[in-house]
Amino acid sequence: MYKNLTFLISLLFVLGLIGAPLARAAVRTWDHDALDNRWETAANWSNNKMPVAADTARIVKTGADECRIQAFAAEINKLQLGYHDGTTAFAGDLRILTDGSLKIATESPIGLKSQGRLYIEGGTLTIDAVLATWTAWGTWLCPTAQSMLDSPTVT
After folding, report:
1. What is the pTM of this model?
2. Is residue 59, in this structure, part of any structural domain at all?
3. Nearest to 104 by CA among 85, 84, 130
4. Cα 11 to Cα 25: distance, rounded to the nearest angstrom
5. What domain range includes position 57?
6. Labelling 30: which of 11, 13, 95, 122 has CA 20 to 30 A away?
7. Please, which residues have CB within 8 angstroms of residue 33's CB and are 6 or more apart in sequence?
8. Cβ contacts of residue 121 below 8 Å, gap of 6+?
9. Phi, psi at residue 4, to the nearest 5°?
């Protein structure tokens, strides 16, 4: 009996250690509840959790409620600027400012049949995905479409 109990506890412990890194990626939606426009403020995101490398960041606020990355290095799996729930389109604005950086691992829809705008104003955007797989329904890196580029670094 003691051996079975020890084995069961050991098995649960090992599975817990293995399962921890395999935690499911989440979609974190920008809700701007903290009202400071800062990406790194957890309270600005759904469930008060900032997106991390495995997550999708969904930004659906514009203007005074836009999301900003400044003097911070963010890394995510996917970015959704704007969102369409099948009925309603939501716009989303993201600004990468001086000393701010965003690294995105996979293809990401900019706009998603709505209005998404990505502004790079002195910051750095690194995209690991093939650019040809990106969908730009909104404004993305195109000065003639008013994307407000000021000497960006895109890698």
Report:
1. 0.71
2. yes
3. 130
4. 24
5. 25-154
6. 122
7. 43, 44, 48
8. 95, 96, 97, 98, 148, 149, 150, 152
9. -65, -40
